Each structure stands twice: as structure tokens, then as C-alpha cells.
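Q: Predict the assembly, please.
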Amino acid sequence: MLLKLVFKNIFRHRLRSLLTIAGLVIAILAFGILQTVVDAWFAGADMASAQRLITRNATSLVFPLPAYYRERIRAIDGVTKVAISNWFGGIYKDQSVGNFFAQFAIDDNYFDLYPEFRVKPEQMAAWKADRRGALVGRLLADQFGWKVGDVVPLKGAIYPGDWEFVVRGIYEPKDETTVTRQFYFHWDYLNEALKLKFPRRAEQAGVFIVGIADGSRAAELSQAIDREFRNSLAETLTETEKAFQLGFVAQMEAIVTAIRIVSFVVIVIIFAVVANTMAMTARERLSEYATLKALGFGPAFVAGLIVGESVMMTALGGALGILLTFPTAAAFKAMVGTLFPVFNVSRDTVTLQVACAVAVGLLAGLLPSIRASRVKIVEGLRYIG
Amino acid sequence: MKIPLAYVVRNLWARKLTTLLTAGGMALVVFVFTAVLMLDAGLRRTLVSTGSWDNAILLRQASQTEIQSAIYRDQASLLDTLPHVARGADGAPLVSKETLVLIAIAKKGGDKPANVVVRGMPQAGLALRPQVRLIDGRFFRPGSSEIVVGRSVADGFEGTGIGERLRFAGRAWTVVGIFDGGKSGFDSEVWGDVDQMMQAFRRTLYSSALVRLEEAADFQAFADAVGADPRLVLDVKREPAFYEEQSRQLSQFITILGIVLSLIFSIGATIGAAITMYAAVANRTAEIGTLRALGFRRSSILAAFLVESMALALVGGAAGLLLASGLQAFTITTMNWQSFSQLAFGFDLTPRIVLSAIAFALGMGLLGGFLPSLRAARLEIVDALRAA
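A: Predicted assembly structure:
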């Protein structure tokens, strides 16, 4: 009975309900996309493994470490593998955002530390055999249409000069949280070239990726590594890969916070719209509610009628909005693919969307329903909208 | 004949809750819209005021930032002899050869460190940046392990008060002063003596050089002189142009994100206005019939409802603007991708932004009110009167 009335009521003001639901769809959609943008920011941290530590110069990331630290770190008990990774920062074609991608000079055993990057054994062998060889991610290769054997020219910004690399392999992601937008080449190649051109800058590592056997010993091993180099010319700072990645996000915290706040502002905006619709509806039907009461229905029934209609509307709008989030996210990803390599709508986002829709529906119906349930029969019947 | 404005305004007043909710929704949209424009304006002003028009900055060819750049000592000493370089009161050329590094300092209220620019400069560096004023303490003495910090650094980072010591490059550096960079990017930097810095960081190269020109118009002649010397493999830029480039990506990002958000939100608020106005028309059908019977034209009815909708939007817009103007008290510190360091900038409310925000609000009101007003204007007198 209640449900039937609620349903009929929605369609009495078809245009108004339609407009309200349209507004809801847009708001829930925008909320979902914004939450996904925030998630995308943390993608690097989500992919981080508990069994990898990152050792960098304690002063800041722009200072290198001596390459011979590699052997001393490897000698520490509990460390399984160590690989150098240097940020190259070369320019492909021009400086536009669309042509930007991360390039790293790495040790040959780097991929042993990253099992989530899948490379065909023959491609890996071909890469190891070619001094100028490069391994590129699937996403990157697709974006620029690179195939195995293609030559990629980069203009060095940190390491001056024109550099040329040959794509020897394309690595595939293990699952959808894996970022495959990096460009890897031999640290040895970079180092040889530096020895000739800038001998002072050779034999240096940007960071060390340290593989450990037991993830639960991460804190203890980080301290052990840092202790090894205390009071040396280049003191180190070792942290888990996750902490390292979160450090990057923290540097841009203000922007992430702003997006978070704004995503809730849109919910408040739509709350105002739905609350307005319900307030108008309830005011117009005040005499009806009085009639219902005169027929013997209690205040709870009247209140249920209004809140039910409000929730029904937000449920409809919310459901549509959530359904639309997936294709929109896919389109958004295609548009800005370079900026956010991982852009997936998470389950948490959908849960939040549902929660927001229901909360807006309940709250928006609350105020008018209190007023309607309290209305005196005589006053209500006399009332003209 | 026109319908008096008082009638329009009283209609809004009659239904307070509805007016409040609709205007509230619009206020939030205008708030977001204005906040983004203010942020972008603040960022631009910060970076434009970081440079002086009669200064030229020199970097190694093809390096985009001061961090990537390197200038050899012999190149640097050649700069003193170039034409069009201004001279100070003591006759020494106004050339500041500087070294730039990034260090990680913990942000206040969080244990995560963020990158801060440390700039080593000679005494001439101060003369080249007239917008920088000392607000507390004194400047560093040449040849000492003393540093001065920008206002944003002092406000936002741990251990940067006067008398405190910052540890980096194997030394303890004493903070002896806090300077105000006039809302420029320098507010986010730490300054010390260039020779001490280079020794501590074991550097033999300068990062960049800043040169005061005799006249701002001499820039081209100076750039040609640099280009003509094969020993100087350096890029020359005007200082403001250089800083503008440094923030282009961040500025673009803020603008695009903000405009897209405002557009999406404005659809929601416009729908809200449309719902309110449709209801207003439906409730007042008899009134409209009476007005028409009294001799008011269809166009007057249309205008009255449009004005009502726009008045509603104006109230919302004004509230949103008021809310946003409160943001001027806040400063945002975030990482500039290009320079890889923290940059503090504020919200800047310019007259242009006020006008855009008002126009934006009125646009929403006009769009949301148009269809309902049209419906009101189209009503036949007889039908409308009968509806009552």
C-alpha cells in the first residue's frame, strides 16, 4: 500500500521528478569520478610490494648515492636482491604533457624484483644482449605505437645529449592494478656514456630497490641499511616502497584534499536540490496528508510516504549514476591516459556512492515529513498550496 | 507595461525554504568556480612576481629547471664581462651565480617530508631581488653556516624558526632570519651563502646565474651577446618568463580540473533552479491569469519570471562569492611537478573573477528559468483563471 502510493506519487509531477533524478545522476556520477581520481593518485602505492624497500639519499631524492653501495647493501643479512634505478628524465619529441613518460636506467636484475611485470623470456634475453635495448610497458607501447625493434630517441635533460634506444621487449601487467607506463633501459649503458662525457657523474645510483625475503622484517632491515652508511658522505634513507610512494602523494596532498572536499560539495549541492523538491511536494500535498489522517492513517504513514518518495527518487538516480560511472571512467581514462595510468572504479567508490544517495534521500525527506506528520487535520484541510 | 520588481522579490521571500535551498545549491557551485579561478590567479601572481622584468636568468642549454642546470665556474666568470650587465653602487657587476639543491624537510603537522628549494647565493643575489624584505631577524653573513628562510617555509615546516638549526649536507645551519618574498615563489625557499653551500654539498658547478640588465630593453642585445660566445652554452630567459614556464603544467591542471568540475556542478544547480521555477509557475497559474487579464503582456510575464530566476541566482552567486572571498586568508602548499619542489600560493580575488562569477551565476539562473518562464508566458488567460 505504502510502496504503491510512493510510486504513484513520483509520477504525479513527471517533469519535476525527471529533473531531480537527472540532477542526481550527474551528481553521483561526478562524485564517483572524483573519488576514482583520488584513488588513481594512490595507484603507485597500491602496487607497492611489502617485500621491496627503497634506499635513497637522506638529503633528498635529487642527490645520488655511490653505486658501490649496492654490494654493501646486498651483504646485509635478510636482503635477497639489490638493483639500481636512476630517473633519466629525457624528453620524447617535445615537452608537452602528452609526450611525458617515466624513464629509468636499471640494473639487469631489476625485473626479478618486479614479478608483476611479465616479459617473454626471449624478449628478456634479447634486451639483456643489446646494450642500447629498452623494455617498455604495454600501455606506453600502445600509446606511441611502438613495436619490438623500433628506435626511440630521447633528449636528455638531466643527462645532456641525444640518446637512442631500441625497444627489445614489451612487458605485460599481472593484473589491472599494475602500472605499465615506464620505459626501462640499461644502467650500464648510461654509466659507460657518463664515464666518457661527465666522469664525475658516473658510478652513481638514484635509488636502490632492495628485495627482502621476509616482509615483516622491513622496519628492522631499513634501519640496518641506514646504519651501514651513517656518518658517511652520502647518508641513506630506507623505507618500504609503499611509504616511498605515499611520500610522493603527500607532497601533493593539498590537491588531493581539495578534490576530496569538492567531491563532497557536489553531494551537498544535490542534497539542496532534492530537499527543495521534497519540500515543495510536501507543501503542495498538505491537504492530502490531512485527508489521509482524517481517514485514520497515522503520522508515521504520512512521514513514510514522503521519506519513501525521497529515497525512491535518490535510489533511481543513484543507480543510474553508478551504472554510468563505469563507461564514463573508461572514456575519461582514454582521454587522459597519460596522466593516470591506472584508473579503475573501486568497490569502495561504489559503496560510497550508494551510501551518499541513500543519505541524501533520507535527509531530504526528513524535514518535510516532520512538518507533514505534525499537521493538524483541520489546518491541513483548510490549507491551499 | 512592466511588472514591478517588488512583486518579483516578494515572491522569492514568500517561500523561504525553497529559495534558501535553491540559492544554497547555486552558492556552492559559484564557490567552487570562484575558488578555482582564485587559485589559478594566485598561482600566476606568485610566479609572475617571482621574477623582475629587467633580470635575465641563465641555465645550461636544454635544461628546463634550475635543478637540472649546471654552469661551469669559467663560464660563470665570463658573465661579468658581458655588455649590458648593470653595475652596483660599488662598481661590481650585478651577477648572482647561484647553486640550487632540494632537501627534504618534515612538514608541520605531519611526519612526511617534502622537498624544499635551498638556494646558495652571493650578496648580489639580494640586490637582484628587490621585492624580498626581511620580516624577522637578519640576513645570513657571507662565509657562515647561516641561512634565512622564506615566510611559507617558516610557517609550514618543522625546525625553521629563528635560532633553530636545520641539518643537511653534513652540517647544522642556523636560521637567522625570515624573509617575505612579496607573495613570490621565493617564500618557499631557503637561502644561504653560495660558497658555503657548494662546499657542503661538494659541488663544483653553479646551477644558474641571475643577471641585472642596465635597461629591460637590453634583453635581446644581451641574449645575442651570450649566443655569440661559443664558450657559453647557455639558454637566456627573462626571469618572469622563466617562472611562468615553471608553473605552466600546474596552472593548466588546476584550470582544466576546475572548469570541468564547475561545468558538471552547474548542470545540477541549473536543474535545481528549473525545478523551483516550474513549481513557482504551477503554484501561481491563477495569479498569472489575473495579471494577463489586467492587461500585462506575455513578454512582461516572461520577463518577470526570468528576472525572478536570475534574482535567485544572484543571491546564490553573491553568497558563493562571499564564501570564496574568505579563502583569501588561506595558503596552499603543494608540489610543482616541473621544479619537483614545494610551492606556496594563495587565493587571489581579482575584479575579473568577481565579474565572471556573477556572470556564471546569472547564466545558470537564465538557463534554469527560461523554460518555466516560457510556459508561464504561454498560458491562455481563460485556462489559467479556470485552474484556480
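The two ends of chain B are 24 Å apart (CA to CA). Residues 1 and 125 of chain B are 70 Å apart (CA to CA).
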